[in-house]
Design brief:
By secondary structure, this protein is α/β, with parallel strands linked by helices. Helices cover 32% and strands 23% of the residues. A hairpin with a 4-residue loop joins strand 19 and strand 20. Helix 3 crosses helix 5. The structure holds cytidine-5'-triphosphate. The site of cytidine-5'-triphosphate has 15 residues, from helix 11 and strand 16.
């Protein structure tokens, strides 16, 4: 898949560097050529010998090779590559990339590279959340550097949270999607998709929910992968299978879904909100199973947060939000109201009929944009609808 692609792998100092020989091995197994460049501090965590053996080329760290007398020319290295990834990218390297400092071979090569560049940050959770780190990540993203977001889990410090370097398999997937997909507006974009129902607990065994299967959102995730996007899927309870290539976060309630989205959306370019979120939850969830007694049982409900609106009104200027609307009457008017009130770039109107909507394999939708474009699909498979939706949004330049 990556046959004959030339990948520059930059490794900065950090414990996650111990995973990089595996990353090199995966790239090589997929057919890529890999040139490794380490910062001096990376060598405290991984050796040049190991990296040279697995990459089948001398791994570099110095501008000048003392043994052979060769000058490791950063401009040539930058021109040689089809893609560059810095993994792990620690805070020090990140801040030097922003300021343009070039006190090592990796940084000079980054500044000379003409190919697309990815970074896979790795640091402790509080460092990762620090405003200066987040600001640097945003600056690099605005300059076109692609982020392979850190993952959540146990950290070297003993703490638990977001900051682990993306697993080598997930980094490989990013490159596979990049090189496989033909050019289009979704390629390389970080996209968050919400899908499925939410369940709102009544007690430990009961819940209120809805009939959404999650299929539409999962088909959108699949279509995005085909187009070379990086997909973060926030999925409510469903038994449907999810493609391996997506970064999956499973949630149950609307509040869980909101927290997951608040975590993930800041690092995304586009959000597609296909989930059927319960508008209400049980005001006070019973901690024990409620026993049957009275003939009537009145449950008090509290309104759930509107996830789409919360994120859309607070988004950064480059971020796009696409919503869905599910209506049974006065459909177009309600959909257009949602487009405006939730400050969306586009909305997809779903109607629930005998052969469409929840738990159906097929659908027929109307797409409206904030610029008054619209498109009506036939009754088609949800997979075809997903592809049409992505193509229309791209054609209408909603992603720009
Ligand atoms: N949505 C959301 N959070 C909610 C409710 C809805 O993110 N609490 C999103 C849905 O994912 C969808 C859009 O908002 O993209 C519209 O959802 P819909 O259920 O059609 O409308 P509501 O805003 O819930 O309004 P109503 O139920 O009154 O039609």
């Amino acid at each position: 898949m990556l046959k004959n692609k030339r990948i520059l792998l930059g490794i900065s100092g950090g414990i996650a560097a111990y995973k990089t020989p595996e990353l090199v091995r995966l790239f090589k197994k997929s057919g890529a050529e890999v040139q490794v460049i380490c910062t001096p501090s990376a060598l405290q965590f991984v050796t040049l010998k190991t990296l040279s053996v697995v990459s089948e080329r001398p791994a570099l760290v110095d501008f000048f090779d003392e043994e052979t007398g060769m000058w490791n020319h950063h401009v040539n290295l930058g021109l040689w590559a089809d893609a560059m990834v810095i993994a792990p990218c620690g805070s020090n390297t990140l801040s030097k990339m922003v300021s343009g400092q070039c006190d090592n071979l990796l940084l000079t090569t980054y500044l000379s590279a003409r190919c697309p560049v990815w970074i896979a940050p790795a640091m402790d959770l509080d460092m990762y959340l620090h405003p200066s780190v987040q600001e640097h990540l945003n600056t690099l993203k605005e300059r076109g550097v692609h982020l392979i977001d850190a993952e959540t889990g146990p950290l070297a410090s003993g703490l638990e949270g977001k900051g682990r370097m993306a697993e080598p398999e997930n980094i490989l997937e990013v490159f596979k999607s990049h090189f496989e997909a033909p050019d289009n507006g979704w390629k390389g974009k970080q996209v968050m998709v919400t899908a499925g129902p939410t369940y709102e607990a009544i007690d430990p065994v009961r819940f209120i929910g809805n009939r959404s299967s999650g299929l539409m959102g999962i088909e959108i995730a699949k279509a995005l992968i085909t187009k070379g996007a990086h997909v973060n899927l926030i999925l409510g309870p469903t038994h449907l299978e999810v493609p391996e290539e997506v970064q999956l976060t499973r949630v149950e309630s609307a509040q869980d879904m909101l927290s997951a989205c608040e975590n993930i959306f800041p690092n995304c370019d586009v959000g597609i909100f296909a989930a059927a979120v319960s508008d209400y939850r049980i005001k006070e969830v019973y901690t024990e199973k409620v026993k049957k007694s009275a003939d009537n049982w009145n449950l008090e409900l509290a309104k759930n947060p509107d996830i789409l609106k919360t994120l859309s009104v607070n988004r950064k200027s480059h971020q796009k939000c696409i919503g869905f609307a599910l209506e049974t009457q006065n459909a177009e008017n309600y959909a257009l109201q949602k487009l405006q009130q939730k400050q969306l770039d586009a909305i997809v109107l779903n109607t629930v009929g005998e052969n469409t909507g929840f738990q159906s394999e097929q659908n027929s939708v109307k797409i409206f944009t904030k610029n008054n474009q619209q498109f009506v699909t036939d009754l088609q498979s949800k997979s075809d609808i997903a592809t049409i939706l992505l193509e229309k949004l791209d054609d209408w330049q909603i992603l720009d």
